[in-house]
Amino acid sequence: MKRIRVIDSHTAGEPTRVVVSGGPDLGAGPLAERLLCFRERFDPFRSAVVNEPRGSDTLVGALLCEPCEADCATGVIFFNNVGYLGMCGHGAIGVVSTLGYLGRIRPGRHRLETPAGAVAASLQESGDVVIENVASYRWAKGVALELEGYGRLTGDVAWGGNWFFLCEDHGLRLGEDNIDCLLDCTWKIRRELRNRGITGKGRREIDHIGLYAPPQRTDADARNFVLCPGGSYDRSPCGTGTSAKVACLVADGRFGPGQTWRQESIIGSLFEATARLDQGRIIPSIKGSAFVTAEATLLLDPRDPMRMGLKPVASP
Ligand code: PYC
Fold this sequence. Notes:
Layout: E1 2-11, E2 14-21, H1 31-41, H2 43-50, E3 60-65, E4 74-79, E5 84-85, H3 89-101, E6 108-114, E7 117-123, E8 129-132, E9 137-147, E10 151-159, E11 163-167, H4 179-195, E12 208-213, E13 222-227, H5 239-251, E14 261-264, E15 270-278, E16 281-288, E17 290-300
Parallel strand pairs: 2-3, 4-6, 11-12, 13-14
Antiparallel strand pairs: 1-2, 1-17, 3-4, 4-5, 6-7, 7-8, 8-16, 9-10, 10-11, 12-13, 14-15, 15-16
Bound molecules: pyrrole-2-carboxylate.
The site of pyrrole-2-carboxylate has 12 residues, from α3 and α5.
């Protein structure tokens, strides 16, 4: 029987499963190389941890590993129901809260090594976590798409640790009772981007789609709906998506250092974002909180034909 020790948490409603022990040996190279090794040699492990019957399409996994940089509290590789994430905002907040819960870190400033680069993270006495994300930027402004059933809409292509298409002029109601329509529209956006060969830098696929609208909360600046790569939607305001959004706002002169952007999610939870400029680069910080929901040992029984998880049904 293979045993994998995990700690589950949620960040603003979006779940993270941190693999504390029992993970594959990915060697000691840079995290980006270890991610490739994970993908090529141990992908069934990813599926076993996050997919049904142990997980769900919304679950993001976080494999803790030895960092290369001695001043990092841990290395971490994020993964989901269909693949891997360079960075994950809600997941990083979940990892920091989990390390605090385990007593591995104390309140204060720390660093996490990810395949997208090292990110600074502060665990506050209140339990809130602030992640200083990777440099974020807009790649393309006002990209126009013609969508069957939705007509013409435009959006920005931006990087916030993952690639995003961010759209404000969709005309849809961002309500929890309108999820089917939001999923349908965002899937169609993703398919259209793919069909038209519209990508991020280096031909990277745009696999996260964010719709924006005025907030429902009085303390928020905007509400969003974010389609994740595997067909689920982010319950949190999406840390990397909020970073990408902030980069676009800064590029448009609508936001800057010293200001706070309050991003409401589709379920009404909130992240606060700020940005600083470093030699012309936009460095967003995301503040949120996570709560540990379970400590568990996953069991992979060699007799179980579904021990490595079920393939998710959704595809773009
Ligand atoms: O918070 O960055 C994020 C994220 C990406 C996918 C799900 N959550």
